[in-house]
Amino acid sequence: MELRRCILTQNPCYQQGRKITPAGVMVHSTGASNPYISRYVQPDDGRLGKNPHRNDWNRPEAAACVHAFIGKTADGSVAVYQTLPWDMRGWHCGKGTSGKSANNTHIAFEICEDGLECEEYFQKVYRAAVALTACLCKKYRLDPMAGGVVICHQEGFKLGVASNHADVLHWFPKFGKTMADFRRDTAAAIEKGNF
Ligand SMILES: [Zn+2]
Fold first, then answer.
1. Does residue 5 contact residue 82 with C-beta atoms inside 8 Å?
2. How remote is the CA of residue 30 from the centroid of ligand 1, in Å?
3. Architecture label for domain 3-190
4. pLDDT reported for residue 114
5. Distance from the CA of 146 to the center of ligand 1, in angstroms?
6. ∠ CA(143), CA(120), CA(157), 5° rounding?
Protein backbone atom coordinates (compact mmCIF):
# COMPACT_ATOMS: atom_id res chain seq x y z
CA MET A 1 0.00 0.00 0.00
CA GLU A 2 1.28 3.41 -0.90
CA LEU A 3 0.34 5.81 1.88
CA ARG A 4 0.78 9.52 1.21
CA ARG A 5 -0.17 12.48 3.38
CA CYS A 6 -2.12 15.63 2.64
CA ILE A 7 -3.64 16.84 5.89
CA LEU A 8 -6.78 18.96 5.42
CA THR A 9 -5.61 21.78 7.66
CA GLN A 10 -8.16 24.29 6.34
CA ASN A 11 -11.09 21.99 7.19
CA PRO A 12 -12.98 23.19 10.31
CA CYS A 13 -12.85 19.64 11.72
CA TYR A 14 -9.04 19.82 11.73
CA GLN A 15 -9.16 23.35 13.12
CA GLN A 16 -11.40 22.19 15.98
CA GLY A 17 -8.73 19.57 16.68
CA ARG A 18 -10.57 17.28 19.11
CA LYS A 19 -8.86 13.98 19.92
CA ILE A 20 -10.22 10.45 20.18
CA THR A 21 -8.84 7.15 21.39
CA PRO A 22 -9.35 5.04 18.25
CA ALA A 23 -11.48 1.97 19.00
CA GLY A 24 -12.35 0.98 15.45
CA VAL A 25 -12.32 1.77 11.75
CA MET A 26 -15.35 2.83 9.70
CA VAL A 27 -15.35 2.23 5.95
CA HIS A 28 -17.18 4.73 3.77
CA SER A 29 -17.56 5.31 0.06
CA THR A 30 -18.28 8.68 -1.41
CA GLY A 31 -21.67 8.12 -3.06
CA ALA A 32 -20.66 10.09 -6.17
CA SER A 33 -19.13 8.84 -9.38
CA ASN A 34 -15.67 10.41 -9.33
CA PRO A 35 -12.77 8.09 -8.58
CA TYR A 36 -10.17 10.87 -8.36
CA ILE A 37 -8.93 11.75 -4.89
CA SER A 38 -8.28 15.30 -6.10
CA ARG A 39 -12.04 15.91 -6.04
CA TYR A 40 -11.74 15.90 -2.23
CA VAL A 41 -8.07 16.38 -1.38
CA GLN A 42 -5.98 19.40 -2.30
CA PRO A 43 -3.56 21.04 -2.81
CA ASP A 44 -2.01 19.12 -5.68
CA ASP A 45 1.25 17.51 -4.57
CA GLY A 46 2.27 16.77 -8.15
CA ARG A 47 0.59 13.39 -7.99
CA LEU A 48 -3.04 14.11 -7.07
CA GLY A 49 -3.80 16.55 -9.86
CA LYS A 50 -5.65 19.82 -9.47
CA ASN A 51 -9.31 20.36 -8.61
CA PRO A 52 -10.21 23.71 -10.21
CA HIS A 53 -13.79 23.70 -8.88
CA ARG A 54 -13.00 24.89 -5.35
CA ASN A 55 -15.13 22.14 -3.83
CA ASP A 56 -12.41 20.03 -2.23
CA TRP A 57 -12.54 19.44 1.53
CA ASN A 58 -9.47 21.50 2.41
CA ARG A 59 -11.43 24.70 2.92
CA PRO A 60 -13.25 26.43 5.78
CA GLU A 61 -16.74 25.76 4.42
CA ALA A 62 -16.28 21.98 4.35
CA ALA A 63 -18.83 20.18 6.51
CA ALA A 64 -17.28 16.71 6.67
CA CYS A 65 -13.82 15.25 7.20
CA VAL A 66 -12.31 11.77 7.26
CA HIS A 67 -8.87 10.40 8.09
CA ALA A 68 -8.03 9.09 4.63
CA PHE A 69 -9.14 8.73 1.03
CA ILE A 70 -8.57 5.85 -1.35
CA GLY A 71 -8.92 6.44 -5.08
CA LYS A 72 -7.11 7.45 -8.22
CA THR A 73 -4.32 9.93 -8.56
CA ALA A 74 -3.97 11.98 -11.75
CA ASP A 75 -2.22 9.18 -13.65
CA GLY A 76 -5.00 6.73 -12.81
CA SER A 77 -3.04 4.68 -10.27
CA VAL A 78 -4.73 3.91 -6.94
CA ALA A 79 -3.26 5.47 -3.80
CA VAL A 80 -4.13 6.09 -0.16
CA TYR A 81 -3.91 9.63 1.21
CA GLN A 82 -4.04 10.34 4.92
CA THR A 83 -6.04 13.54 5.48
CA LEU A 84 -6.32 13.85 9.30
CA PRO A 85 -4.09 12.68 12.16
CA TRP A 86 -5.38 9.20 13.04
CA ASP A 87 -6.30 10.19 16.59
CA MET A 88 -8.17 13.35 15.65
CA ARG A 89 -11.99 13.23 15.84
CA GLY A 90 -13.44 13.10 12.32
CA TRP A 91 -16.79 14.27 10.98
CA HIS A 92 -17.95 11.30 8.95
CA CYS A 93 -21.06 9.59 10.24
CA GLY A 94 -23.31 11.98 12.13
CA LYS A 95 -25.25 10.52 15.02
CA GLY A 96 -27.13 7.23 15.24
CA THR A 97 -30.45 6.17 16.74
CA SER A 98 -28.75 5.47 20.09
CA GLY A 99 -27.73 9.12 20.28
CA LYS A 100 -24.09 8.03 20.07
CA SER A 101 -21.68 8.66 17.22
CA ALA A 102 -18.79 6.64 15.86
CA ASN A 103 -17.14 10.01 15.20
CA ASN A 104 -16.03 9.69 18.85
CA THR A 105 -14.51 6.24 18.46
CA HIS A 106 -13.70 5.31 14.88
CA ILE A 107 -11.02 6.25 12.38
CA ALA A 108 -12.76 6.69 9.02
CA PHE A 109 -11.81 6.63 5.39
CA GLU A 110 -13.65 7.23 2.14
CA ILE A 111 -13.23 5.08 -0.94
CA CYS A 112 -13.84 7.24 -4.03
CA GLU A 113 -16.59 5.63 -6.07
CA ASP A 114 -16.49 5.23 -9.82
CA GLY A 115 -19.62 4.11 -11.67
CA LEU A 116 -19.61 0.91 -9.51
CA GLU A 117 -19.31 -1.27 -12.63
CA CYS A 118 -15.55 -1.69 -13.00
CA GLU A 119 -14.24 -4.82 -11.33
CA GLU A 120 -10.57 -3.93 -11.83
CA TYR A 121 -10.97 -0.61 -9.99
CA PHE A 122 -13.01 -2.29 -7.25
CA GLN A 123 -10.36 -4.94 -6.65
CA LYS A 124 -7.63 -2.30 -6.40
CA VAL A 125 -9.45 -0.06 -3.92
CA TYR A 126 -10.71 -3.08 -1.93
CA ARG A 127 -7.14 -4.33 -1.52
CA ALA A 128 -5.96 -0.86 -0.52
CA ALA A 129 -8.83 -0.57 2.00
CA VAL A 130 -7.93 -3.93 3.54
CA ALA A 131 -4.27 -2.89 3.79
CA LEU A 132 -5.09 0.47 5.39
CA THR A 133 -7.50 -1.11 7.88
CA ALA A 134 -4.94 -3.80 8.75
CA CYS A 135 -2.29 -1.14 9.28
CA LEU A 136 -4.58 0.88 11.59
CA CYS A 137 -5.74 -2.18 13.56
CA LYS A 138 -2.12 -3.14 14.13
CA LYS A 139 -1.15 0.39 15.16
CA TYR A 140 -4.00 0.70 17.68
CA ARG A 141 -4.10 -2.99 18.72
CA LEU A 142 -7.64 -3.48 17.47
CA ASP A 143 -9.19 -6.87 16.66
CA PRO A 144 -10.94 -6.54 13.29
CA MET A 145 -13.05 -9.62 14.05
CA ALA A 146 -14.44 -8.22 17.32
CA GLY A 147 -17.97 -6.82 17.23
CA GLY A 148 -18.35 -3.22 16.11
CA VAL A 149 -14.64 -2.62 15.51
CA VAL A 150 -14.34 -2.71 11.70
CA ILE A 151 -17.66 -1.61 10.27
CA CYS A 152 -19.02 0.24 7.28
CA HIS A 153 -21.30 3.26 7.49
CA GLN A 154 -24.46 1.18 6.94
CA GLU A 155 -23.45 -1.24 9.71
CA GLY A 156 -22.84 1.78 11.94
CA PHE A 157 -26.41 2.89 11.29
CA LYS A 158 -27.69 -0.56 12.23
CA LEU A 159 -25.61 -0.42 15.42
CA GLY A 160 -27.14 2.97 16.25
CA VAL A 161 -23.90 4.95 16.01
CA ALA A 162 -24.15 6.49 12.53
CA SER A 163 -26.60 8.29 10.26
CA ASN A 164 -28.66 6.33 7.74
CA HIS A 165 -26.41 5.75 4.71
CA ALA A 166 -26.03 2.78 2.37
CA ASP A 167 -22.25 2.76 1.98
CA VAL A 168 -20.50 0.45 1.34
CA LEU A 169 -23.14 -2.27 0.97
CA HIS A 170 -24.57 -0.79 -2.24
CA TRP A 171 -21.16 -1.52 -3.85
CA PHE A 172 -19.07 -4.34 -2.32
CA PRO A 173 -21.69 -7.10 -2.90
CA LYS A 174 -21.74 -6.28 -6.65
CA PHE A 175 -18.29 -7.86 -6.72
CA GLY A 176 -19.03 -10.65 -4.25
CA LYS A 177 -17.67 -8.99 -1.09
CA THR A 178 -19.45 -8.56 2.24
CA MET A 179 -18.18 -6.70 5.28
CA ALA A 180 -17.64 -10.12 6.89
CA ASP A 181 -15.23 -10.85 4.02
CA PHE A 182 -13.60 -7.48 4.57
CA ARG A 183 -13.01 -8.22 8.27
CA ARG A 184 -11.63 -11.68 7.47
CA ASP A 185 -9.35 -10.27 4.77
CA THR A 186 -8.15 -7.61 7.21
CA ALA A 187 -7.39 -10.19 9.89
CA ALA A 188 -5.51 -12.30 7.32
CA ALA A 189 -3.48 -9.25 6.20
CA ILE A 190 -2.48 -8.51 9.81
CA GLU A 191 -1.47 -12.12 10.33
CA LYS A 192 0.70 -12.14 7.20
CA GLY A 193 2.06 -8.64 7.79
CA ASN A 194 0.72 -7.91 4.33
CA PHE A 195 0.04 -4.18 4.27
ZN1 LIG B 1 -20.52 7.10 4.64
1. yes
2. 7
3. 3-Layer(aba) Sandwich (3.40)
4. 98
5. 21
6. 40
* Angle, alpha carbons 130-131-136 (nearest 5°): 100
pLDDT at 194: 85
Mean pLDDT in residue range 64-91: 98
The domain limits of the chain are 3-190
Start-to-end CA span in the chain (Å)? 6
**In contact, 132 and 186? CB cutoff 8 Å:** no
User: 194 C-alpha vs ligand 1 centroid, how far in Å?
Assistant: 26
Q: How far is the CA of 187 from the centre of ligand 1 (A)?
A: 22
- Report the percentage of the chain scoring pLDDT > 90: 98
Cα 108 to middle of ligand 1, angstroms: 9
Quote the ligand 1 centre to 171 CA distance (angstroms).
12
The CA 105 to ligand 1 mean position distance, Å, reads 15
Task: Render pLDDT for 34-72 as a digit per residue (tens, 0 to 9).
Answer: 999 999 999 999 999 999 999 999 999 999 999 999 999
Mean pLDDT of the chain: 97
